[in-house]
Amino acid sequence: MEHVGGVHAQDSSIIYIPDEKVMFLGDCIYQDFYSGEWSYDLNELTVLLDKIKKYDVDYYVTGHQDPKTHAELWSWMDELIQIGEIVGEESSLDKAVARYNEVQKTLPSEEQLEYIQNFVSGNQKKLIRNEA
């Protein structure tokens, strides 16, 4: 068991079963919804994923979805990180969506749009904290 913190909650922990190559993630990979709008912080998410990556895992058990294979989880996380990188420090949803369209040459899906909004909301929270 390792305390990993993360975006969702600072007290998040993971449990790794080495013999089975299974990791229980709980909710640590999900958005912060405790402090206003649901949000992701790219830096916090990257730190969290670096902690998870150091384990040799075949299957991940999350708090709200069916278990995922290594390939399934990292495909999802890679897309999430890519969206966060495209959004960058943008705090306007319209501008972030325009940037996504420009980079990806396509409109975001409903799920991708939600993640764009999550990163924009995270950036807005940072701006508010920095102004305080």
Automatic annotation (TrEMBL):
Family annotation (Gene3D superfamilies): Ribonuclease Z/Hydroxyacylglutathione hydrolase-like (3.60.15.10)
Name of the featured protein: Metallo-beta-lactamase family protein
